[in-house]
Amino acid sequence: MRIVLVGPPGAGKGTQAAFLAQNLSIPHISTGDLFRANISKQTELGKLAKSYMDKGELVPDEVTIAMAKDRMEQPDAEHGFLLDGFPRNVSQAEALDVTLQEESMNLDAVLDLEVPEEEVVKRIAGRRICRNDSAHVFHVTYKKPKQEGVCDVCGGELYQRDDDSEETVRKRLEVYHTQTEPIIDYYKAQGLVVTISALGPVEEVTTRAMEALKREDDDK
Fold first, then answer.
1. What is the CATH number assigned to the segment(s) 2-218?
2. 128 labeled binding residue
3. Which domain of life is it from (predicted)?
4. Band of residue 57 on the pLDDT scale cut at 50, 70, 90
5. What is the dihedral of CA 75, 81, 85, 86, to 10 degrees?
6. How does pLDDT run across 29-47, given as a tens digit for each residue?
């Protein structure tokens, strides 16, 4: 299957993408991984992307699209892929359509992870990270440390990252609503959107997504 995964910040896209890709035996292609891999390998696209990033500028759509196209043409993506973080806007979605048509391919589904806005704010603004090891993550509601402000694992100080503040989260949501959310309507017009609730335990959301994708596949 060829799938695009969409949803607001805090919807759990990265987690779900990893589980779904494993269950469907297709590669998980995330924009972040694409950028890191190309920059690390110092590919021409990576150098170009870094030149914009070093100046604090957004990487142009055509560079992101070229990276995604190159990744989708790799042998492990021959029978499908799951795109996470791309397309990020309607112009990227249109370019993806053109790229797929050129390769005589098409998308099978666009999985929309739906989460109420206040839940997104609660999820992200409640995160606390250990200063000693950023892999140690806690939450003021969902994963409380035994002692407030102290990491259970190493005793380090727990803090809230600047980009996890409520004000920043709400700004990120505004960007999502303005730039990314319109692709849902774009794909709805093609009959590709499958919307599921992303509330509940991770395993439940994965099961919900797999069942919805199977129904979509069976209907075709």
1. 3.40.50.300
2. no
3. Bacteria
4. confident
5. 70
6. 998 899 999 999 999 999 9
